[in-house]
Here is the input.
Amino acid sequence: MRIVLLGAPGSGKGTQAKKLMDAQGVPQISTGDLLRAAVAAGSALGRRAKAAMDAGELVADDIVIGMIRERLKEPDTDPGFILDGFPRSTAQAAALDEMLEALGQPLDKAVLINVAFDNLVKRLTGRRTCTACGQMYNVYFSPPKVPGICDRCKHDDLAHRADDNEATISNRLQVYQDQTEPLVSYYRDQDKLATVDGEGEPEAIYARINEALSQ
Here is the structure.
């Protein structure tokens, strides 16, 4: 299985990618994870990426494409992969097609997860993460039982990511609108697009994705 997950920030691509990875036994390749690792390492690549990420902008194509190219050469991708967060533009999609053709591993399908704009904003601005155990919450949809206290470990520091503010999120969604939505037409023209409703419980969304992949 070789698929791309499409959707705006907050649409749940990462959650669904992990479910598919566990079920299918193929790796999830998340540009967000790769970029955050580079930022944490403090490399030149990481510093360039951080400036764009903090502003809610897309990281330059040459950085992202190079990272993806190296990742797809690793042997664990031979049986397939799930791309989460890449491609984000038609230029990146064309570069991906070229990479996969060279590897003899053409893309099977692009799955678009649709979520209403208002819910995207709440999903992003409401995110909180326990700094002790990593448990995740959302103050709108899945808050802790006691405000500010982790249900799992009772730690009292639930962090709010610096880039999860309304100004940055509005910019991220506008960037998505302008640069990423054309991918819908790109993959539709290739007859590889599947669209699923991204509202509701994660398990229900996962069932819809599996149904789309089986068609």
About this structure: The CA atoms of residues 123 and 141 lie 8 Å apart. DSSP finds nine helices and eight strands in the chain. The beta strands are 2-6, 28-30, 81-84, 109-114, 127-130, 136-138, 158-159, 193-197. The longest strand covers residues 109-114.
